[in-house]
Amino acid sequence: MIPPETARLQLSQMLSPAFPVGGFAWSQGLEYAMDAGWVTRATLPRWLEDWLDHGQGWCDAVLLSLALRPGADHAALDDLARAACMTRQRLTETVEQGTALAANMAALTGCPQAPAALPVAMGRACAAMSLPPAEIIAAFLQAQAAALISAAVRFLPLGPVQGQQMLAALRPRILDHAARAAMATPDDLASATWGADIAAMAHETMTTRIFRS
User: Fold this and answer.
1) Which end of the chain has fewer CB atoms surrounding its CB within 10 Å, N or C?
2) DSSP readout, 73-107?
3) 54 burial type by CB count under 10 A (0-12 exposed, 13-18 middle, 19+ buried)
4) Does residue 159 form part of some domain?
């Protein structure tokens, strides 16, 4: 097992924007929603809350939790994670980032790792950390929320400080969802964010776009 002090440093490294998984290139359909006027500076916090409560944030938290557990079948979880993707771009997004993470971890540890969807690859890479699962899940959710806010800062009239205020406001929700996900079962894997799914589908046909999803 990796001791807590080392594990926290490693987790911070893996979730840093500098860790080369390409997260900066994706928006999970948020770009279309902003372009269409569905999401504005005023409504972005609600979009992020729904993402956590009912959308990809919650799904990835559950998948990460399942992948962290002793004896987890990561190949089966990868199949489940791919099947849970509602759009082609979402599938590409999670698989490309997870594959990059796995390749990076293989280079750092010398242990080959098969490609996998991002939350499964993350869970597999963090399984040996002697940290509470909820702590790992919360750190992952915060990094994902920060990436979405960063996309909004680049698209909307939204300043970086305002973006950080939105991220700080999400902390109680992130901690709550991480604690619930740590105890979740596969039956808890569900989403109901139809607007986000439609935005992700519509993004595929945008003529001009900044992000890949």
Assistant:
1) N
2) -HHHHHHHHHHT--SHHHHHHHHHHHHHHHHHHHH
3) middle
4) yes
CA distance linking residue 48 with residue 39, whole number of Å: 10
pTM of the model as a whole = 0.97
> CATH no. for residue 108?
1.10.4190
Domain extent at residue 88: 29-203
Q: Decide if 43 is inside a domain.
A: yes
* Overall domain count for the chain: 1
Looking at the domain assignment, is residue 181 inside a domain?
yes
Enclosing H/E stretch for 27: none
The answer as to whether 116 is a domain residue is yes
- What are the phi and psi torsion angles at 203 (to 5°)? -60, -30
Q: Which residues contact 157 (CB under 8 A, 6 or more apart)?
A: 41
Instruction: Quickly tell me which residue has 């849970």 as its tokens.
Output: 84
Single-letter amino acid, residue 185:
T
Q: pLDDT (tens digit, 9 = 90+) per residue, 72-94? A: 999 999 999 999 999 999 999 99
Per-residue pLDDT reduced to its tens digit, 4-28:
999 999 999 999 999 999 999 999 9
